[in-house]
Design brief:
By secondary structure, the protein is an alpha/beta fold. It has five helices and eleven strands.
């Protein structure tokens, strides 16, 4: 984490030094091992995702996560695994800490920065893997009707990896089962992360 250190107090950082802190610790599956393998139940949050016109949504900034905390707390308090935020226009934005993809009739869809999302590294990876696996992918706004009518839904993120979504607001997706395209992308992604894909070894950095 990079942050302004001590010099003066106020919204103008003036001569505050830029400090950096690094921590390493075991985290585990962000939405739980069961959620990672069998899928998660999510709800549409009453909290709206802040507009990219107000704060740069593409920046991974600490203060912005208050928005995410409100969303996930609402979801947990109501018995769901995660919350899904809509943007200021009423289109699907993202989860509290994940990008979202839907699958319909064999085509994968996801949104972009106009939906006030963080342009995640895992999101970019999945987009590239769709091209490699000859899975059609379209980047566009996603409305709630398309969300509820999807054949498959999944989250992506550094912590969430590729997590299937099996219901939205108690409406089952794919009869509550993990979809075939989701499974294929998840399997391919994990093979890359674990160094099992010879075609993607250049993506990895060896730590000695």
């Amino acid at each position: 984490i990079a942050f302004y250190g001590y010099d003066t107090l106020g919204v103008n950082p003036k001569n505050c030094p830029v400090n950096v802190s690094i921590a390493a610790f075991f985290w585990g599956a962000y939405l739980g091992d069961k959620g990672l393998s069998q899928g998660v139940r999510i709800c549409i949050s009453p909290w709206q995702k802040f507009s990219y016109k107000a704060i740069p949504a593409t920046a991974k900034a600490c203060g912005q996560y208050t928005n995410s905390m409100l969303s996930v707390n609402y979801a947990k308090e109501n018995g769901y695994d995660e919350g899904l935020l809509l943007d200021s226009r009423g289109y699907v934005a993202e989860g509290s800490g994940q990008n979202i993809f839907i699958v319909k009739s064999g085509v994968v869809y996801t949104n972009d920065e106009k939906s006030s999302i963080l342009l995640g590294i895992t999101r970019a990876t999945i987009i590239q893997l769709c091209s490699e696996l000859n899975i059609p992918i379209i980047i566009k706004d996603i409305n709630c009707e398309e969300l509820f009518d999807a054949d498959e839904i999944f989250f992506t993120g550094t912590a969430s990896e590729v997590t299937p979504v099996i219901s939205v607001d108690d409406k089952e997706i794919n009869n509550g089962n993990v979809g075939t395209i989701t499974s294929k992308l998840k399997e391919t992604y994990m093979d890359i992360v674990l160094g099992k894909s010879d075609n993607h070894l250049s993506w990895l950095t060896t730590v000695k």
